[in-house]
Amino acid sequence: MTSAWSRRTFLATSAVLTAAAGGALALATPRAHAASSDDAYAALRATWTSLILGEGFSPTAEPFKSRLAALGTQARGWRDTMAPADGSLWPDAVYADPDPDTDPESYGFSAKMAESFIRLNTMAQAYRQQGTGLTGDSALRTAIVTGLEHLNSQVYKAGQARYGNWYSWQIGAPQALLDVCVLMYDALTPAQLGRYCAAVDHFVPDSAVASYTGTSTGANRVDLCRVLALRGVVGGTAAKIALARDALSPVFPLVTKGDGLYADGSFIQHTTVPYTGSYGSVMLGGLGLLFALLKGTAWEVTDPKRQVVFDAVENAWAPFLYNGLVMDSVAGRAISRGEVDDHRRGHPILASIVLLGRGASAAENTRWRSLVKGWAQRDYYSPPLSNPSLSLTGLARLKSVLDDTSLTPLPEPEGHRLFPDMARATHRRPGWAAALSMADKRITYYETGNGENLRGWHTGSGMLYWWGDTFANGQYSDAFWPTVDPYRLPGTTASRKVLANGAGGDWGAAMPDVNWVGGVTDRKRAAVGQYLKGLSSTLLAKKSWFFLDDTVVCLGAGIRCQDGTAVETTVDNRNLGPVGNAPFTVDGSAKPVTRPWSATLTGASWAHLGGHGGYVFPGGATVKALRENRSGRWRDINTGGSTETLTRTYLTLWVDHGQNPADASYAYQLLPGASEQRTAARAADTGWLRVLANTDDQQGVSVPSLGLTAVNFWFGGTVGPLVADAPCSVMVTEHTDGTATVCVSDPMRARTSLTLTWNRAVSSVLSKPATVTTATTGASLRLVFGDLSGTRGATQTVKVRLA
Questions:
Q1: Could you tell me which of 116, 108, 135 has the C-alpha nearest to residue 14?
Q2: Is this structure's pTM higher than 0.85?
Q3: Catalytic residue, candidates 107, 279, 381, 615
């Protein structure tokens, strides 16, 4: 199974080394063994140098000046501490494995081998950059060559048996090695380059991309193609470059299972994990680099299916970007890496979109740059140009966009996006955005592996994230994951049964045996449902979310469990930072800001948290509240994390269903950004929302002022004016022009027939999908759908004229 611990090590370390990469020094000394036949490869080396070092900025201007100085300091440290010995190039980076195999200990040794090449890459960049204090330094050049020779003679060489993690040998080490070969090309002899290329050929043979399976899919395939392409550039081998170009083609088509991009905008890696914000970021960045490297050459990527990737910028990535951050719901294990939060993960995606635009149409390039400018300008919490983990090439690309006065920044896109192929949803409204994470028989509860994300157990149990436009953008950035109660993630229903670190197994192995997960959307509003089975638990529940204009209506029913522990639904769990003095009001009564404070709120109608938003409980509810300081360490959830103890204040609201509930339920409205007055007014307007059903069989609501009726039919039945003969999700919206839209889906992807009746006078059917085999109008609308099993849970829309 693929491992991202070494990917994490490689990316995190290379982020530090490239953070100071900037205007490259064009060495004047010609390479003695270069010939005119090398012109094409020399051009490719020059292009790659500019791509990995950056261009178009002043090394004496900030933030570049400081980054370049830091690069020089880091490189000087590596040069001065280098001590070649058997089994190591640096004393703290021993790569010799006394018992070479593929156990966790061996993973550590192979990672140190790759890290050694990354350190040499740091030194090579400092040598080639201006403003590092080591530009063109002869002693540094000698140290770099010495290091390459040492690693080639001892460990990374043709004939060497692989140990530890495959990633270290096939991606981590060769990418860094080949970068150094490009940067130091004039300092290396043909014999040296030949041996280094032979080593790459040994560990990354052509067969590595012979089939689109295993560790050669998605982001991993793009990384392997980068290795092959640069191997061709360094060795002057046209066939290698052509192979790399052609091996990208399997990445482009949309997939219907396994790793890759899906028609609905989903991106999956490791077979079961939504990974748009982590592996998807790597793939996007890698494709941008290769498209730019080969553009205008004999090896240009011309496969027309590459348009799928261009379309995915707005179909797959943009829905998960908000004010510069990328949502944690699609970041997998990366949420447990303390050095890079959601904002710092988002910024490289912005930079990659800018780079990808160089290979797209002029219209796409301009629009994407305008989107990026908007995201970057709005990131008040973590401005991209202050991101210490963003490479200097990324900084340069984002600064060029921010400085481009011809660009008008585009606002955040509005609307709802449902991603049934990865059990995710995003909802974006003026002033706020939300994201929902679920799990089903195809999508894991969560991913752990390599000692990462050890307590992400319930992130797929209906976790509801939300952010404001100018507030709470650090909600999940500010030490949230090591300090939050992992059994009380916002929106989730969970048993308090104690789970072991990594419960369920590594690499997304644990998936609930459920089919009904998904919903319907008209791209503005949505009805979404999850049949929940708890991880390593007897918990069962039906959960529904109705995403509307200014609120998310949350219903739960049929909640049962025999774990012998309490079961809770967490209404919200807000990270209030180190101080945590946000005022909290319940039914107009201010509650203490002291910590710890707790209370059982009996018959609560509404609550409000200052600077965040409001909560409404239709008909009143008994809710528990807690304001507390919580402490934790990144090491607690990631074996490679910091041991520093962090403390944050939380305000938690939850419904306690008691121990071993038999048929519990809940209902509440979330109003992001609402004032106390608006929250109280919504609670007082008891007719605004009507809960039509909240049972184990159906859950539904109507909002007369919106002309909306929405129902999740877990089983066929009658709810309000809607009758369904089988499980489905339905949303009906009556418009002011005398028409109505009926949205239907089969989240189970199993119906060969479905009959839906809407008891409302309808004069005609204006449009319908091909799956509607019969549409009868009159006093009621009767729709008979044909085979929905192939629609992959997508929404079917029928437009009608009201009588």
A1: 116
A2: yes
A3: 279
